[in-house]
Design brief:
Length: about 400
Amino acid sequence: MKPIDFVGIYRAESGKIIASLTLWAKDLELAEDAMQEAYEQALLQWPQKGLPQSPASWLHTVAKRKVIDRIRQLSSRRKPDTLVQLEQHYSADDAAEDETNYAIPDERLRLIFTCCHPALNSSAQVALTLRTLCGLSVREISRAFLTSEKTMLQRITRAKRKIRDAGIPYEVPDQEHLTERLNAVLSVIYLVFNESFNAYEGQTLSRKDLAREAIRLASILKELMPLPEVTGLLCLLQLSDARTPARSSESESYIPLEKQDRKLWDKSQIEEAKTLLIATLAKGNSGPYQIQAAISALHATAPSWEETDWAQICLLYENLYALNPSPVTKLNQLVAVAQTGKVELAYKEVLNLDNQLADYQPYHAVKANFECRLERFDEAKSSYRQAISKTQNGGERDFLLKQLATIG
């Protein structure tokens, strides 16, 4: 019997199931617990009985039953009509574990808006949604926020507690309140894609399932709210995703942008995103996602790394930093500055980011690259070793080890 990829199934399906159960039962923690119990039951039964025709539907059915059982146990704390209503939804067709060919409503985008409640601060909104609905681990989320796993776990736990104690309802806000939650929702989708584009653990550099999910959510959001920044985010994801086929090969697990075979890029996807982006930028008042998309478009349409319009990219990063003065934005800006020939200037400014980006692997890799170009080889060796120590991705580690080996 072929081994069952339990982890892969959980990561691919848990977010959709939890979202569906939460909006059905109006209780996130109950939905999470039910999903976990259903998964544990699958771990016991599937190796003996075989993989169901639809693992997601099987998990959804069992988790629904767990929710009903738990609500019955807590019936004194629930309104009687709530239990009756839920039990009516739990139809006879859903009850049989082997009847697994029914559709699970995909409520993730709706629940992302629900979790991005203004009563929670923005980082808590994003972290909670990434953990619960998008299947990212605490480690992956802490990396995205440049903080420790312990701090991130505490932040997610506090967010859940606040939702429970404040009685925040799990319901989609009306149209007039959607806009106030939009920035957090965009952040969630962006970070989901970022994690797919820079997979933290394992030997594969990209997790295509996360990329597809992020692009799907961005596309739905654009239909729901066709605003310039929403469109900018969709274009950014499409442009980045179009370059994925060239990021690795049979012989190289990681190929940096400057050495990629541009013939492998998805030209139709690039052209589609570029056309949409030009129309969006023409409306003026560009936000961070539109600017990042414009930077990505310059990379995607340049004939080569050397022929990239680095001066224009520097200006775009300057505008982006004015809107979002983060150390990561500054680091990316300095890479572009170095490409205009000002390596010494860029290196001096990179050193000023050490306190803020000491645990950020790309910072040490960029620093090492600058040091090699300035022939500061002993320092470059040290920086490459730091970068290697900060990555858990096999492809990135192999590439960094090769870079280190080239300087002896």
